[in-house]
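Repro:
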Amino acid sequence: MKTEHVPAPWGWRSASYWMTLSIALAILLIGLRFMLAPQLSMDDFGIGPLTDSALTYGRIKGIRDIFSGLALLALGLTRMKKATAYVFTAAIIIPFTDCLLIYQQNGVDLPRLLVHGGTAVYMVIASFLLFRNSYKPTT
């Protein structure tokens, strides 16, 4: 008897699939909001006050968020679990760094720290699920 490792199906029935798509959609919407309403977005993010250079940074963040959301959506919708797992795991550095930057600028700003830190924890859990059971043995 020969055993093969076939990639496990990944899609609508997987928690990691929905966790990944929800972050992709959320970051896409956040990016759009940074482009369309930079002042409001920067206040909510924890960056302030608004200056011309800060506005430019806000728009730079917005377009990068849009790209990140579209890239994750493309990987998820094409059901490329392994590629999604690597990209999603690497992206954990973003909310983690955001959390540190907010702490550095605002000190203990608990609501904003919880948003960024909570996002990092959520992404760690999703990454664990993405790498778990990537293959199922067949006979």
